[in-house]
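Saturday, quiet lab. Running sequence design on the C-alpha cells for the scaffold JK sent over.
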C-alpha cells in the first residue's frame, strides 16, 4: 500500500483512494519529519514545510511531492528532479480567489476604503474624500496567464478596457479575451489608469515594476500587487505613493512576510494592505486540498496528466497522440549521443509541423535519449532536464518553419567540444522513421544495432563491409543507402543482429580507401 504524508494544514475533502493510506500530521516538527519521511511514497504540503535537499535525501521511498496551491518556493526542484521525484501543484484551485482579491484591492484603493474605515473608527466623519471609478478606465495587466485572464474578464464586466504585457502569451489568446497586447511594457504603462501584476516571481520578473516603470504611470493611477512580493519594487512604490506621483495602491504580498512595523509602505494612508490572502477563501481551500490529494494519488498510480511542475504533464490521451513522436525523439537523442564524440555542450531540438498538443514532451524525450547511453541509471521524464543542466548541456527548442517534406518532423542536433551530429525523423503509418542522418537523406527504422558508415563514392564499399561482417558471422537484417552528397561521399546503414566486437570494428576502419567514418549505434 502506498503511503502519503500530509505535513501542513490542508482540507483534503472526503475522497478516498484504494491501496493508498493518507497520514495527516499538519503540525509535525522538522526533526520528527526527518525521522519518519523515509516510510512514505509521497508528501503533501503547503508553504510551511521546506522540502529541501536534506528532506529529499532522507525520504528514501519518495516519488511524489504535492504542493497545495501555486508556488513551489519551498521545494528544491533541482534536488527533487535529480532524485526522479515528481513535483505537483494545484495552481487552478486558487485562481478565482486570487483574481477576486486583486479586484477587491483595486476597488478599495480607488475608493479609499481603508482610509475611510480608519477615520470613521476614530470618530471622524470625512465625506470630502474623492475616489476614482473603474468604469471607462484602462487596466494594464502584467502577466496574462490564468489569473491575469480572470482579472481581465472581471474588469471588462465593470466597464474597463484591458491591456496586457506578456512576452509568453500568444496574440491569439489576447485577442480571444478582448485584450490589447503590448510588446513594450513602458508603452502600455503610459496609457494605464490602473495596473495589476500577475506573474510568478522569477529572475526575469523580479523588480519588473521599478521606479522608471512607475514614473510612466499618470498621477491618477492605481497599482495592485496580489501576486508575489518583489515583482513591484517596494521602496520605489512607497516613494511614488508618498510623493503623490500615483493616486493609490493595493498590496497583498511583500518580499519579507510579515513586513516589519516600520516598513515604509505601512506608514501610508493611500495604500490598502492585506496579509497575503489571495488563496484564503473557504472555497479555494477546499479545492486546493481535494485537487492536490487527487493529483498525488493518481501520480502514485501512474497518471501524471495534471499539475506536474518538473516534468511534462502526460495524460493517456496525450500519450496516445504524441506517443510515436516521443519514441522517435528518444531514438534520435540516442543516435546523436552515439554519433558525436566529445562532451555534449549543446542540444538543439527542432519541431516542425502542427501538433495538437504542446510538443514540449518531445524535447524532454530527446534529452532522455541523449543521456541514456552515457548514464549508468536510466534517466526519466522527471530528471532528464535536471541532469542535462547539471552536466552543463544547454538545451534549446526550435519551432521550425522550414518545409522538410513531412507534415510533422523532429530533428535533434548535439554539439560537442569536438564535433556535432544531427538526426531527423518523422512518423509514418504510426511508426517512427529516421529520414536524415548528418544531412544525408535516408529512411530507416530506428531499432536494434545499426552500423552507420560514410564512404567515398566508389563501387564495392558496402560489399567490403558485408564481407568482413559475414566472416565474423554477423548477420545483416536490412540495408539502406543514401544519395551521394556534394562532397562526393555517401552514407549507408546496416542493421545487425548483434554488435561487432572491437577487433571487427578496427578491421572495418582499416578497409583501404573505403570508409571515412563508422559508428555502431544501439537504439
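Result came back. Writing it out in full:
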Amino acid at each position: 500500500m502506498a503511503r502519503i504524508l500530509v505535513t501542513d494544514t490542508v482540507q483534503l475533502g472526503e475522497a478516498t483512494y484504494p491501496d493508498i493510506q493518507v497520514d495527516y500530521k499538519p503540525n509535525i516538527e522538522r526533526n520528527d519529519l526527518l525521522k519518519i519521511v523515509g516510510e512514505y511514497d509521497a508528501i503533501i504540503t503547503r508553504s510551511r514545510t521546506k522540502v529541501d535537499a536534506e528532506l529529499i535525501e532522507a525520504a528514501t521511498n519518495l516519488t511524489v511531492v504535492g504542493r497545495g496551491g501555486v508556488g513551489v518556493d519551498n521545494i528544491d526542484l533541482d534536488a527533487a528532479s535529480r532524485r526522479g521525484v515528481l513535483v505537483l501543484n494545484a495552481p487552478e484551485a486558487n485562481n478565482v480567489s486570487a483574481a477576486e482579491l486583486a479586484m477587491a484591492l483595486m476597488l478599495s484603493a480607488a475608493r479609499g476604503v481603508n482610509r475611510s474605515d480608519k477615520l470613521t473608527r476614530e470618530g471622524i466623519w470625512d465625506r470630502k474624500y474623492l475616489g476614482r471609478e473603474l468604469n471607462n478606465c484602462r487596466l494594464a495587466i502584467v502577466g496574462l496567464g490564468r489569473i491575469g485572464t480572470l482579472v481581465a474578464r472581471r474588469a471588462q464586466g465593470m466597464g474597463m478596457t484591458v491591456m496586457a504585457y506578456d512576452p509568453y502569451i500568444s496574440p491569439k489568446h489576447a485577442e480571444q479575451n478582448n485584450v490589447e497586447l503590448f510588446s513594450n511594457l513602458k508603452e502600455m504603462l503610459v496609457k494605464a489608469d490602473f495596473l495589476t501584476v500577475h506573474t510568478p516571481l522569477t529572475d526575469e520578473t523580479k523588480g519588473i515594476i521599478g521606479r522608471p516603470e512607475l514614473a510612466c504611470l499618470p498621477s491618477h493611477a492605481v497599482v495592485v500587487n496580489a501576486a508575489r512580493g518583489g515583482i513591484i519594487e517596494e521602496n520605489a512604490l512607497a516613494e511614488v505613493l508618498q510623493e503623490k506621483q500615483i493616486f493609490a495602491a493595493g498590496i497583498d504580498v511583500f518580499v519579507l512576510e510579515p513586513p516589519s512595523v516600520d516598513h515604509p509602505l505601512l506608514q501610508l494612508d493611500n495604500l490598502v494592505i492585506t496579509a497575503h490572502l489571495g488563496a484564503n477563501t473557504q472555497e479555494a481551500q477546499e479545492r486546493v486540498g481535494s485537487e492536490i490529494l487527487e493529483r498525488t494519488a493518481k501520480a502514485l498510480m501512474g497518471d501524471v496528466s495534471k499539475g506536474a511542475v518538473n516534468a511534462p504533464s502526460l495524460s493517456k490521451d496525450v500519450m496516445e497522440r504524441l506517443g510515436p513522436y516521443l519514441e522517435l525523439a528518444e531514438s534520435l537523442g540516442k543516435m546523436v549521443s552515439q554519433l558525436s564524440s566529445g562532451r555534449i555542450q549543446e542540444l538543439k531540438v527542432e519541431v516542425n509541423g502542427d501538433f495538437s498538443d504542446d510538443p514540449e514532451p518531445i524535447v524532454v524525450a530527446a534529452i532522455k535519449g541523449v543521456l541514456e547511453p552515457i548514464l549508468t541509471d536510466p534517466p526519466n521524464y522527471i530528471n532528464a532536464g535536471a541532469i542535462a543542466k547539471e552536466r552543463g548541456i544547454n538545451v534549446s527548442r526550435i519551432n521550425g518553419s522550414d518545409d522538410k517534406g513531412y507534415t510533422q518532423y523532429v530533428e535533434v542536433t548535439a554539439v560537442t567540444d569536438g564535433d556535432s551530429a544531427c538526426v531527423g525523423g518523422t512518423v509514418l503509418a504510426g511508426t517512427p522513421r529516421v529520414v536524415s542522418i548528418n544531412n544525408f537523406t535516408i529512411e530507416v527504422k530506428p531499432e536494434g544495432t545499426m552500423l552507420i558508415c560514410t564512404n567515398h563514392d566508389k563501387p564495392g564499399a558496402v560489399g567490403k563491409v558485408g564481407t568482413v561482417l559475414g566472416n565474423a558471422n554477423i548477420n545483416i537484417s536490412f540495408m539502406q543507402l543514401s544519395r551521394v552528397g556534394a562532397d562526393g561521399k555517401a552514407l549507408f546503414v546496416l542493421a545487425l543482429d548483434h554488435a561487432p566486437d572491437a577487433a571487427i570494428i578496427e578491421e572495418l576502419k582499416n578497409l583501404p580507401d573505403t570508409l571515412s567514418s563508422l559508428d555502431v549505434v544501439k537504439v
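Notes for JK: Residues 193 and 221 are 5 Å apart (CA to CA). The first strand starts at residue 2 and ends at 6. Ask whether to fix the surface positions before the next round.
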